[in-house]
Design brief:
It is a single chain. 44% of the residues lie in helices and 18% in strands. It is α/β, with parallel strands linked by helices and 214 residues long. The chain has two domains: 108 residues, Rossmann fold, CATH 3.40.50.1860; 99 residues, Rossmann fold (3-Layer(aba) Sandwich). The radius of gyration is 16 Å and the shape is globular.
């Protein structure tokens, strides 16, 4: 079985690959990346037609590679799945849907993001699933670029500080970007701290098992 992974940043690759490896299920991972997409959405602030067309090029490449499903790894682009899914026969998974479904078991959800557009995509999903859910969002726009430039210490410290800012305000905290997955082990949180890669890998593989035995 083949899974197409669509990336907008290099920082998302290792966390999702590791998550699939930890599941110990024999699948082939094919990577499709366009690092120009993140600057485009940061500049525009939304999914413009140009961004959607450019993103669809990655999906087309995955489809032409005969993947069995497609997993996004960048949360800022999650809402593009609604637009593109009707055009393709295989399932397109948002980067966050599995972890957000876990978070919806709680009444007060905290979101921590390092890309400005991410909370928009995440909150639209949460509110669609449960209009009454309480969401507290903290975002530091552009913080992911420190990680991309090698300043992991500053990136991790600021994310840890945002986790502490939510203390006592929420029942669960979601680290929105895949690139923050490693920080969960750095924080002693009084509430569950959820990350997306492992949850996404589990859901993706569970879906494939409905297609065939692997």
């Amino acid at each position: 079985m083949k899974i197409g992974l669509i990336h907008a940043t290099t920082t998302a690759v290792n966390p999702i690959v590791k998550a699939f490896q930890e599941e110990s299920t024999p699948v082939e991972l094919l990577h499709f990346m366009d690092t120009g997409l993140l600057p485009m959405i940061e500049e525009s602030g939304s999914l413009t037609p140009e961004i959607i067309r450019r993103f669809s090029l990655l999906v087309n490449l995955a489809v032409q590679s005969s993947v069995d499903c497609i997993q996004l790894s960048c949360s800022a682009f999650n809402n593009v799945t609604k637009i593109l899914q009707p055009l393709y026969p295989m399932k397109l998974f948002r980067s966050d849907e599995a972890v957000l479904d876990e978070a919806l078991a709680y009444e007060r959800i905290g979101l921590i993001s390092t890309v400005k557009e991410t909370p928009i995509a995440l909150m639209s999903y949460l509110k669609e699933k449960n209009p009454k859910v309480s969401v507290e969002s903290l975002v530091e726009p552009g913080l992911i670029h420190f990680l991309m430039k090698g300043n992991k210490e500053l990136h991790d410290r600021r994310v840890r500080e945002m986790v502490h800012q939510l203390k006592g305000k929420v029942d669960v905290i979601v680290l929105s970007q895949y690139s923050m997955e490693h920080i969960a082990a750095q924080v002693q949180s009084t509430v569950p701290l959820l990350t997306a890669p492992r949850a996404s890998a589990k859901r993706c593989l569970s879906y494939l098992r409905t297609l065939t035995s692997i």
